[in-house]
């Protein structure tokens, strides 16, 4: 039986002091985390939409993509290989019993020939992450990964307890931090040989191209300063990452909207508002770099206010007095 597979050649490594390297060149990961679903199609996403999503993200100089929180579609990985997007390939079921290990190894076998994949992630925010049990589960799952692929690091997206004497991050090759900016420096000091990156951050909410918050109409202004309690604004979160060479990069929550988690809104709102790109409307007037660095991507500028692209399209609304805020 003849089997044909695409492949690619590159080198990858994580350094505990200087971050991520692609082909021996330092690269700061400027990524987004994304669920698979898309408005109008659910999780049955056409191939053309994967290309659309990745091209849009690359336009704003995003170079990485976290598949949250399950194995990505094979067609997505084909598109990532083709277009040059670095992927954090994430497992769904956290456990070391035969069935979770079988599912994990199925994912590794299916995806290991994709050069876009740079990390295997074994969990997201599990209750046992700060315990000896969490450590042991990651250790066993990492061993199962290494039975099939020794060329990539194993990580886990941990949201607390990373400074506990025994915790899951200690069994991972690369420590992933979800929103735990406060622990970056102390963790690095206590674990100087452990590479680190921000596996999920920001959680800023907005309705694209809206400049007045009207919660009764499920509308949030897009000044990038409405942040949920566990996160930081795009500007401040990126500064936490960019000013620390030992943090390999970030995965912003999220690149695109998804079904569920409508906070701070409530019913009848049923979708999220975290995204760089919205569910229904396509971007107009250019790509908005929501980190606040307005030159040519999130690594290029200082932490200046983001330009409000599309301002000219809202002239009819200026009479309400709420659009007097210019660049912040």
Describe this structure in words.
It is a single chain. The chain is of the alpha/beta class. The chain has a single domain (12-320), classed as Glycosidases (TIM Barrel, Alpha-Beta Barrel), CATH 3.20.20.80. The protein is built from 6 helices and 11 strands. It has helices at residues 47-59, 74-83, 98-111, 132-146, 184-190, 234-242; strands at 12-15, 19-22, 25-26, 29-34, 64-67, 86-90, 117-124, 153-158, 174-178, 196-202, 247-253. It has an 8-stranded parallel barrel with strand order 4-5-6-7-8-9-10-11, surrounded by 4 helices. Strands 1-2-3 form a 3-stranded antiparallel sheet, with no helix packed on it. Helix 1 (47-59) packs across helix 2. The longest helix is centred in the middle third of the chain and has 15 residues, at 132-146. The chain is globular and about 55 Å long.
Number of helices: 6
CATH fold title:
TIM Barrel
CATH architecture: Alpha-Beta Barrel
How many structural domains? Answer: 1
Annotated CATH homologous superfamily: Glycosidases
Mean pLDDT: 84
**Helix amount, in percent?**
10-25%
Largest sheet: 8 strands, parallel, barrel
Question: What structural category characterises the helix and strand content?
Answer: alpha/beta
- Residue runs with pLDDT of under 50 for 5 or more positions: 278-328
- Name the strands of the widest sheet in spatial order: 4-5-6-7-8-9-10-11
Tell me the fraction of residues in β-strands, as a range.
15-25%
- Calculate the terminal CA-CA distance, rounded to whole Å: 62 Å
The total count of strands amounts to 11
In CATH, what is the class?
Alpha Beta
Shape: globular
């Amino acid at each position: 039986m003849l089997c044909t597979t695409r492949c690619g050649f590159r080198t990858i490594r994580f350094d505990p002091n200087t971050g991520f390297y692609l082909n021996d060149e330092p690269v700061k990961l400027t990524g987004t985390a994304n669920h698979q679903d898309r408005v109008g199609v659910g999780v049955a996403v056409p191939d053309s939409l994967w290309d659309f999503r990745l091209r849009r993200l690359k336009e704003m100089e995003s170079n990485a993509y976290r598949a949250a929180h399950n194995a990505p579609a094979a067609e997505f990985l084909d598109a990532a290989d083709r277009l040059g997007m670095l992927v954090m390939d994430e497992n769904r079921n956290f456990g070391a019993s035969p069935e979770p290990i079988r599912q994990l190894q199925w994912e590794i076998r299916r995806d290991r020939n994709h050069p876009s994949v740079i990390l295997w992630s074994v969990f997201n925010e599990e209750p046992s992450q700060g315990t000896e049990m969490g450590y042991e589960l990651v250790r066993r799952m990492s061993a199962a990964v290494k039975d099939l692929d020794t060329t990539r690091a194993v990580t886990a997206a941990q949201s607390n307890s990373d400074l506990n004497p025994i915790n899951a991050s200690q069994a991972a090759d690369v420590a992933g931090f979800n929103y735990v900016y406060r622990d970056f420096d102390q963790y690095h000091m206590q674990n100087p040989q452990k590479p680190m990156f921000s596996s999920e951050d920001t959680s800023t909410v907005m309705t694209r191209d809206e400049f007045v918050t009207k919660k009764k109409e499920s509308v949030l202004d897009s000044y990038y300063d409405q942040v949920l309690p566990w996160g930081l604004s795009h500007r401040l979160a990126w500064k936490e990452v960019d000013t620390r060479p030992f943090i390999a990069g970030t995965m912003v929550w999220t690149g695109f909207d998804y079904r569920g988690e409508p906070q701070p809104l409530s019913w009848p709102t049923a979708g999220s508002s975290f995204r760089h790109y919205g569910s229904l409307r396509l971007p107009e007037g250019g790509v908005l770099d929501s980190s606040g660095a307005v030159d040519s991507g999130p690594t290029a500028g200082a932490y200046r206010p983001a330009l409000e692209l599309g301002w000219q399209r809202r002239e009819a609304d200026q009479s309400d007095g709420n659009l007097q805020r210019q660049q912040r």
